[in-house]
Amino acid sequence: MIRIDYLWLAGGPWTCVQEASGCLPVLCRCFGSAQAHHGYLFANARATRIKLLVHDGFGVWCASRRLNVGRFVWPQFDAHSTAPVTLTKQQFDALVLGLPWQRLEQMRVITRM
Fold first, then answer.
1. How far apart are CA 46 and CA 103, in angstroms?
2. CB–CB of 51/17 below 8 Å?
3. For 25-55, how does the pLDDT look when each residue is reduced to its tens digit (9 = 90+)?
4. Spatial CA neighbour of 4 closest among 36, 33, 26, 27
5. Which residues on neighbouring strands pair with residue 106, listed in sequence order?
6. Is the pTM of this model over 0.85?
7. For the chain, what is the mean pLDDT?
8. Rounded CA gap, 39 and 112, in Å?
9. Per-residue exposure over 45-69, b if at least 16 CB sit within 10 Å of its own CB, e if not
10. How far apart are the first and last CA of the chain?
11. Rounded-to-integer distance, Cα 40 and Cα 5, Å
């Protein structure tokens, strides 16, 4: 199994047709470098496809997912912000299913009936 210690979201749309070797320059441009055991998530402009790149210490693994109906819940990034966005495992699991991962803590408590 591939170990992923940290998951990062890339801001802005990205073309998801490239293979892992073509994605590496984009990853380095967005994040500065590819760290071992870090996963990097990218989405296309319509947020119907996502791509996960993982550096395992020796090379880069690439996985992709497409929603046939709906869109992935992707944050709106400020054009001037350079702070990367990290995800917990629970947030990642919700994101790849197309669920509102930013609201997981709010969804744990029912306040109205």
1. 21
2. no
3. 777 878 888 899 999 888 888 888 888 888 8
4. 36
5. none
6. no
7. 79
8. 37
9. eeebbbbbbbbeeeebeeeebeeee
10. 42
11. 11
